[in-house]
Amino acid sequence: MALRKLWLLTMTQVLFIITLSPESIEACKRNIELNGCLASSKVETHLADARVYMLTHPKEFDVIDLDPYGSPSSFLDSAVQSIADGGLLMCTATDMPVLCGGCTEVCYSKYGSYPIRAKYCHEMALRILLACIESHANRYKRYIVPILSVQMDFYIRVFVRIFTSASAMNTTLLKLSYIFQCNGCDSFHLQSLGRIITKNNRGKYAPGSGPVVPQECSNCGGKFSMGGPMWSAPIHDQEWVASVLQNVKSMKDKYPAYKKILAVLTATSEELPDVPLFVNLHSLSATLKCTPPSARIMRSALVNSGYGVSGSHVDPVGLKTDAPMHVIWDILRCWVKNNPVETHHQNQYGIAILSKEPVLHADFSSPVTPQGRSQRKEPRFIPNPEKHWGPKIRAGRKIESKHTSSLGPKRMSD
After folding, report:
1. Is residue 269 within 8 Å of residue 242, measured between CB atoms?
2. pLDDT band for position 3 (50/70/90)?
3. Sign of the C-alpha dihedral, residues 158, 164, 169, 171?
4. What is the CA radius of gyration of the chain?
């Protein structure tokens, strides 16, 4: 994988491959020989602990790519110190069960954040990782600027630039939030860690004002679970994403995975940049036990109500919107009036929501100027390339019958 980046190097740049695995070093050396004299002069392999190596080379690397098997958390402190000012840090995490709420205490110990197990958990995983990187950077008067953050297949990957500025670092409190998730319905609310107050014509940082929710959900009466902190500022640089998307299209023949890259970048470029997380149409409808409206109908109602809306690159039926939760439930109340549900199938939370009359009367007609999705015909989500697609077992482990689900029966028989 590292040799794929060789063609990006300038005349004076060198690619360092650092690993503790002797087998990996030998494989890298064989690949370097196969790639000729250019690779031999531009690529260096080091059998060493990457954490120690980065610590002994402060602010030296222009680009660092962390791609471990599992969690990158143990490498982050070294990486944010080793990267040059304005440099690019690329980071992959494959421990999705941890980041998505399957092992909450492990997530807190590794990333310093408590995850919520909800439909938006994969995007929250991205935001937890960004908050963790920011936390490590702040210890050295540095801060991050995310340019692309994506969830693909069975992992997440973020691209951030690292800068040094004590004054800019102070704004971190405005970029982090706790989340309150209702246990009865899909309502969630964000609580910012900090705010700016003006005093004597000067801005001053203060703790966030709250709480943003009562003891019980105002929509269904359920209790709240609390998670975070997580990154609540934009996770993409939309101009940068648009530029990369254009470049990818112009060089489509050079990318074997062109369709996958195009789908992810297209979906990412259409997301509302300043709306953390999303709601899932099917999950909202399941609470009310009603037939879900189509994404087009829901988008129309939100746009006609004066709110922004877009899709999510994480979930095909996810909707990002700046509409508050009570507006979303009002729209669904109006939808249920036109598409009645069988009352004996409802749960207590759905009954509580539908027992209230909508304050907003939704208009489901198509707006004159649609929002949230361009008219381009590129797919946003494509099928997996093969059956049993997913993470494989860690290198060096003995393959047993319990690994059938990840490898597939055919490979097990081989």
Report:
1. yes
2. very low
3. negative
4. 24
Q: Which two structure tokens, joined as six digits, stand for 364?
A: 């489901």
3-state secondary structure at position 309: strand
| 302: CATH | 3.30.56.70
Asked whether residue 121 is assigned to any structural domain, the reply reads yes
Distances (CA, A) of 134 to 1, 162, 167, 186, 298: 26, 9, 14, 28, 35
- Residue 302 in contact with residue 373, Cβ under 8 Å? no
Q: pLDDT per residue over 42-97, tens digit each?
A: 888 999 999 999 999 999 999 999 999 889 999 999 999 999 999 999 999 999 99
298 and 212 in one domain?
no
How far apart CA 269 and CA 261 sit, in angstroms, is 12
Apex 318 CA angle, 313 and 321, nearest 5: 100
Greatest Cα-to-Cα distance within the chain, rounded to the nearest angstrom: 74
CA distance 11 to 128: 37
Is 74 in contact with 67 (CB distance < 8 Å)? no
Q: Using an 8 Å Cβ cutoff, are 149 and 139 in contact?
A: no
CB count in 10 Å sphere of residue 203: 10
The domain of 302 spans 279-354
Question: In whole angstroms, what is the distance from residue 128 CA to residue 146 CA?
Answer: 13
Which position has the token pair 């900090």? 194
Assigned domain for 262 exists: no
Sign of CA dihedral 67, 70, 72, 75: negative
Structure tokens of 13?
């740049």
- Joined tokens for residue 81: 């110190």
Q: Which tokens in the block code for residue 291?
A: 């037939």
Q: Where are the alpha helices (DSSP H) in 112-185?
A: 121-138, 166-169, 172-175
Q: Based on the domain organization, do 100 and 169 belong to the same domain? A: yes
Which amino acid makes up residue 307?
Answer: Y
- Identify whether 254 is part of a domain: no
Contact present, 173 and 194 (Cβ < 8 Å): yes
The model carries a pTM of 0.89
Q: Reply yes or no: is the peptide bond before residue 229 cis, omega within 30 of 0.
A: yes
Strand partners, 18: 46
Pairing of the two strands 224-231 and 318-321: unpaired
